[in-house]
Design goal:
The complex is a heterodimer. Chain A is mostly helical. Among the domains of chain A are: about 210 residues, no CATH class; about 230 residues, no CATH class; about 25 residues. Helix content of chain A is about 65%, strand content about 5%. Chain A is built from 25 helices and 2 strands. In chain A, helix 5 packs antiparallel against helix 6 and helix 17 runs parallel beside helix 20. Chain A is globular and about 100 Å long. The termini of chain A are far apart. Chain B is mostly helical. Helix content of chain B is about 70%, strand content about 5%. In chain B, the strands form 2 sheets. In chain B, strands 3-4-5 form a 3-stranded antiparallel beta sheet. In chain B, a hairpin with a 4-residue loop joins strand 1 and strand 2. In chain B, helix 7 packs antiparallel against helix 9. The longest helix of chain B has about 35 residues. The radius of gyration of chain B is 24 Å and the shape is globular. The chains are: A mainly alpha, B mainly alpha. At the A-B interface, strand 1, helix 5, helix 6, helix 24 and helix 25 of A face helix 7, helix 13, helix 15, helix 16 and helix 17 of B.
Chain lengths: ~700, ~575
Amino acid sequence: MRTTYFQQDVLLIILCPIVGFLIQAFLGGIAKKKLGPSSTRNLFGFMAVLAVAVPFVVTLRVLTNFGPVSSPLVVPLAPWIDLNSFRAPFEFLIDPLSLTMLLVITGIGSLIHLYAIGYMAKDKDFTRFFTYMNLFIAAMTILVLANNLVLLFVGWEGVGLCSYLLIGFWYKDKANTIAANKAFIVNRIGDFGFMIGLFLLYCLMSSKAHRHTRFLSYDVLRTSIETFHNHPAIVTGICLLLFVGACGKSAQFPLYFWLPDAMAGPTPVSALIHAATMVTAGVFLLNRLSFLFVFSPVACGVVAIVGAFTALFAAVIAFGQTDIKKVLAYSTVSQLGFMFVACGAGGFSAGIFHVVTHAFFKALLFLGSGAVIYAMAHNQDMRNYGKLSKYLPITFICMLIAFLAISGIPPFAGFYSKEAIIGDAIGNQVFGGSGINLVTVAGYTALFAALLTGFYMARLTWLTFLGKEERWRSISTDHSHHAEAVPTPALEVQDAFGFFASEPLQLEEEDHEELTADHNPKEVPLIMSLPLVVLAIGSIAAGFLLNGKLVNWLQESVQTLPFHEVSWVTPAGITAGVLGILVGIAVYFQGLPQKEGWDIGKWSRFRVWAGSQFGYDKAVTGGACASGNDIANFLSSQFERWIIEGVLGGIARTAKRIGDLIKTTQTGFARLYAAVILCGVIGLVGWIFISVRGGF
Amino acid sequence: MGILSILIFLPFLGALLVGLTPNGARGLHRGLSMAVSLGCLGLSLYVVSKFQAGNYHFQLTEKTNWLPQLGISYFVGVDGISLWMVVLTSLLGVIGCFFSVYEDANRSKAFYILMLILLGSMLGTFLALDLILFYTFFELSLLPVAFMIWIWGNEDKKRAAMRYFVYLFGGSILMLLGMVMIAYQFDKTNGMVSFNLVQIQAAVSNGSLWQGQCHGLEAVIFWVFALAFLIKSPVFPFHTWMVDGYTQAPIGAVLLGILVKTGTFGLIRFCLPLFPDVVRGASTIILSVAVLGILYGATLAAIQTDIKKVIAYSSVSHVGFMVLGIFSLNQNGLVGGILGGFYHGIASGMLILLVHLLCVRMKDRSVAIFGGLKVQMPVFATLFLVALVAAVGLPGTNGFISEFLSLIGAYEGGYTNHVASTFFAVAASVGVILAAVYMLLLFQKLFYGERPNSSIQYLRDIKGWEAIGLAVLAILIVWGGMAPSTFTQAMETSANATRMMAINSASKRPSWLNQEESIGEDGSLYASQDGVVILISKPKYHQKSMSAELPQASPPGPAVLQTGGNH
């Protein structure tokens, strides 16, 4: 009864964005021709928002029906992979964890969709954008609602595909498409670990006698605690491999380097996918499998250390960035590191708490930066900003709130979740006894990273909105290097089938705004500022409203390890945040340290070095591409040519020569074939007669 | 005449009809062959509706004596393994006729005759249950493709046709020898010559054929079979003929050339059930070759400058996954391998078709001349994306299901040791990463970036009818990914039976024999009709006792064998 009731709701939640996706995909192009671009924009933009807002409302309804204390509920829908040896049906899990994630995805998702209507208004591929966005929401809901790991993998890869498509949305620029490829391939490396982990888990489960063959469903896994208890080494292996997958998706070291490049996508994409939702999928995965991770202190230690290192590393790199979105990207990587510290410390639900608050303030930061970019003629370099608070008051206030929230200043949202994380990590009992506790080290590292967070965010705020001068006023406008339109040569193709048009397709002229010295930034329209305000309210309120309650509620679906209360964490956290901001103000109060030469000065060498990620990205990406190329070229030019063609080709040539002998005249190979067949048949018949002559 | 015979001979009849029409009537030729292949598709769907899942015996069988003195019969039947391959063949036949418009200008009559012969012989290959009948169809299907490459191929067509022919013919001629040796062995142990697959397998299943003492012979024949099928599949290092074939052949030949799936099919149909004592030991070798092929194909695909070669090498990689699944000898892996043949036929067929449509337009296959096509060919780009994600094995598309099952089967491991099976699965999974690399690189080079300043600026999007033809394949890709049980339902029982035929010890192996025929423990062949059991033949060299060699043979054979009993 209860299940069938929830079945409809779950279907509605998943199908709404899918239907939205189909409408955008199939009717978008037609509508643009029939209705004209502007009414298409209004209609299809509205429908896109609806496709995300309706699931939000339905999720709220599910939440009220589900009640605060219900146990997790499995909602089966249909069979999918359905073998006798292995089953992975379409089945969904409603519990506090999935509901929390759903609310974040659909709630913040609809706000970002709304914002995107304004942001993408001038783009000619408006409906294509929302096609991908709605598909993304569908994949993300499948990811969080799935009740087995294979179905989760559908969403997991689905969001990866959407991320790929949206990073490369402006595909005419080759750099964007390279970034898109990089994102997908690096994620695939993570998925490689994820898949091996899945196989290992499958084998562990299938080697035990189980009543049903839904080996990878959470409800089956959760009841196999004993199996995990008896195989600690295998469980550690599974956890570490799955964590590799989480590292790929959630941009943790060593697989973080796709995320900064992913900023090539439109800013709403960065806000939705690369800040608020998709990149938290790794944290979600660890929460889902918390019952597995609690069996492996080693895996927990690794998770915490990797998270802490990433948090610190990315925060340091953020100082070297001049692109406003890149700063936020590294900030996201760093904040995700915090979430993993929480997971590693066994305080999984604190990680989810940070996912929720981070979703608010980071989405706000990205949308705010989008508003700045929008106002500054799509120039993203902070060196050209300054004193923008004068022109963009609403954006400024919202960004300021987000800035305080991410820095961990009470009573803003980030304070509560960050404090919970650091408290969990420093007071953890993962390893129990004495000795160096890796997770505690991670906790202290995270505390330091929190200080740096305040610092680099202060830098961003002061460079962009405050300071002494409007730096774009001093831009010299001498880059008039418009490419000369080369006349297309007249076409001389034989076109029997009508493949070609008589005229080359005229590209729609896109207005290339350039930031000039006399540019006057304008505040964004209402449709874009409204989401900013709502998110700002969330960034203020989400922390103290949810503090304690969310973590308690999540106990139903997430296992946590106990930890000591550490009394000095709260003051220490506040001090770190305030100190970071104060240092930042002290350094960047005047705007840039030097008037013109950004890269001159005491710290410039460090900044440039940090900005290039200490050479990590270049070494890894460049090394992988170069060596891959070398191997492939060697195989192609040497191995394939000499060994395979040589040896096997030699055999083939010999065979052909024998054939030539048989073939009496040069009449083509039909006769050769006939001759060989004939020989074969004669041989066959002869053989059989000889061998069976006794039989007749 | 039963439904299967009609299905097999309808294309041949169609070829005859096309032969009777006047030379110049292109439209008539095309329409006629289109109608015939549509008829085949309808018939094969009818076969699907008649098929009973959950039964691993051959269904809708038909048997007529052909050369009874030589033990050769016309014997056809369908089971869960061949069922969907038959549908795939007919479907690709339809699609092949559909998209041959651009190539049939020259000698259309011959073109469609060859096409229909190819279709008929492919169907025959999948349905034949007599070794010689199988071989006949298997070899017959070589000829049309060779001629199509020779006549309608691209710049290097003669060399490609020659290589195609020499490789495949050379590879399978030995198989004929192997078949004769099997029949000879059957004669030795069971007292009659027979090429009947079911009878031979029955003799294998109760251990009377190989008897443990002819391991050498069994191994030799196994490798002769395996070699023929591995070349046909084609598995690294025998892939060069396919790379040439893909680049040189006209579209009809390429599409049906995708039915090199007869290679993997043959591995399942013959190599697993007939040589159980060899299979387990050989699986490690074949798995290594498969994994090498996965990585090798994927690596080479990444640097090709010829679009069709990218697809060809990606096929080499995908075939590796199928062979990996099949020789994992694991329930999931085997289903993954069988499913892979069907799914890859659709996804790769769509990919090669898309690429071909592009090459037909520009008369050039090099990647370098393209770029920024997404602006002017949005529909084409979208369809390409669907085929791409299937080739990459993205969950939700059919490619994922088969790859995932193959990999999980390889990991779980059948009969290689645990370290080896882990290694194979991990190495093969690297192929999944590489698949993303080469496919995305191709997509980027074709569709993204600036348009080069050349005649591709005049290129239009594909036409409506082309898009519809491709959309059918796209729908099947998503369907296969979302509702794989449509296809696995029929496969699973057959796959499982095949697996048990390969891995169980003698007398515990299932057999395809129906109630009517059975082989006694002494090797005599019995047939029963309406409960009356008739002795067909007695072994010439009477075996003393099976149980002396096979200590576990003391309990009576499996239930299927018991009706014959020891009368």
